[in-house]
Specification:
Order of helices and strands: HHHEEHEEEE
Helix content: 25-40%
Structural class: alpha+beta
Strand order of the largest sheet: 2-1-6-5-4-3
Distance between the termini: 16 Å
Number of strands: 6
Shape: globular
Radius of gyration: 14 Å
Number of helices: 4
Length: 127
Amino acid sequence: MTEPSPAVAAAIEAELRLLDPVVRVSEELLASMLHPDFREIGTSGRIWDRDTIIGVLTAADAPRPGPLTASRMRGERLAPDLVHLTFDTESKGLRSHRSSLWRLTGRGWLLYFHQGTPFIDDPFAEA
């Protein structure tokens, strides 16, 4: 397997950082990693904007899903300032396919778009 390009490696590093429970409860850290125009389609189908997702994740009474385990992460540089990542996560037995778009800005790579889709084992799915 070949090493990812520096842009893809930077996006992967940032994505893994976002999965860290310490980052997910910090308004300051989340704000530093999410693009001002960030949007997410969550596993529930709900559409989130940057301010709403930061508020929900950092609220004192927010549910804590526990550690997220990422697997099958791979990336593709689509343009000089755009990287697309795909991967799977698992937390407490719940599994999701994930897709993220990272944009290069003057502040570095920021998460621009994210989507999560729940899945169960499918014997006919692609590996």
